[in-house]
Amino acid sequence: MNQPFDLSFEPLSAATIGPLTELVLELWPDCRYEEEFENGETILNSANEVCYLASVNNTYIAFVHVTIRTDYVKGATDSPVAYLEAVYVKPGYQKHGIGRRLVAFGEEWAREKGCRQFASDTELTNTTSIDFHQKTGFSEVNRIVCFIKDL
Question: Cα 120 to chain center, whole Å?
């Protein structure tokens, strides 16, 4: 899809942990800045995690976070498995293929790491995310409802 703006992509760096943290807080407003900033530092220093950011005119507008999981991943037939932990595009920039391009960066990174499968999850009620996953080539493998009981 054509973008009506000048778009650039880059991997996470020490200089972009702050902007990543701000985007994470837009996606998950209940999180704390300090904790998410520390998570960004962890990602930056990890061989098994990566983030890419998208910017328009030096303003960060989107990110993707991908990890490598070696534990059980529902529906996976191989290990390790790349895992789409998060993808977020600011509302004013959605529907321009930015999320799809960020996922493609994550897929390429996963291939370089030797992964042959890419997994993800979302809430049952998040129809926007379900639609995005399907449009980027994911196939649904399971639906669950989780329970908890205090003892």
Answer: 9
